[in-house]
Amino acid sequence: MTTGRHVAIIGAGAVGVISAIEALREGHRVTLIDPGEPGGEQAASYGNAGWLSSHSVIPPAEPGIWKKVPGYLMDPLGPLAIRWSYLPKALPWLVKYLLSGWTEARVEKTAFALRDLLRDAPLLHRKLAEEAGVSELIERNGVMHVFPSRGNFDNDLGWRLRKKVGVEWMELNADEMRQREPDLHARYTFGVVVEEAGRCRDPGAYVAALANHAIASGVTHVRARATGLRLNGDKLVAVITETGEIACDAAVVAAGARSKQLTASVGDPLPLETERGYHVMIEHPESGPRSSMMASDAKMVVNWTDKGLRAAGTVEIAGLEAAPNWKRAEILRNHLISMFPKLPKDIPPSRIKTWFGHRPSMPDGRPCIGYARASRDIVYAFGHGHVGLVGSARTGRLVAQLLSGKPPEIPLAPFAPERFL
User: Where is the FAD dependent oxidoreductase domain (predicted)?
Assistant: First the structure.
């Protein structure tokens, strides 16, 4: 394969727009296809926690999680909830999900793979932000994890595996935490700071700026919803959209949770599911953390953004079409007020913004990055789950390398779509 191909990239989220920038850098002609506004509220890129956590290498499923499934079904407001009505459709995915984390060895394999994908992510994003003229949106000043006790940390498999894959951190006792975070509730008595990590001050604005930079550099943006891919033998001919076909000789499927239909159109029925997520944001908060943090008991990330104090987390398995359960956002708000007692309990509703969206997730916590079976003209880049924003910078580079037939900069076998086919 040579440079100079016409590449159609389906999806203008973080992965899609960075893939467009990197493909353009490789000398390709690029068309970006998405019905929505890049960085708009409809996109997962808009509503994520904003963490650039290069240490987020642990998949959601861990050994013994199967014991918790009945609780997930019974508690619609828990950190992970499964709607009964969607269970029959979700069951094949859930079985693969449980099996992927059945043993520590399987989780460790994913941790090493994700470490390769996420290493140096804050630096990669900072360079992209500088190119797009928004360097102030990316900060590399570490993130904090807080725990009710040292035992909560010591008994966590995830931190043992992070150490194994080379993640380093600084430990804080109760007094040291209080010096750093005086407004944090006293129930948190132990913390760790991962200094290599960073954050994005406005994920939606960041993705929008990257898209504007791509378009200004020569990328064509077509507002349309892609519905399939048309092949002639093993050669890609066009992307099929609701408004007609777009001729091209290479394509990237980076449509997030809506990628499943596209891969199925070329014979790859991949087990992609949506992990529905929520966030709540308080404008002009009276209190909060000095640094970005995750609370282990609430399974929630708290991050300052340019628009307010954002709390994001929870997983809901209920499909693409079900209505949101806004009580889940209320739970996040209550956790946030509990973490920072100086926040008033009667914050006016006008200062509280909520959001709901779709994380595209593969059962084993690893994205699909690689060629379609039917044609090496088609590259898959989706299914990042909880590491979409942080993982998008290197994913875009990998996509450009695959499009140009160059050796990828990290081993892609752990991310190969064929692992599910």
Answer: 6-402
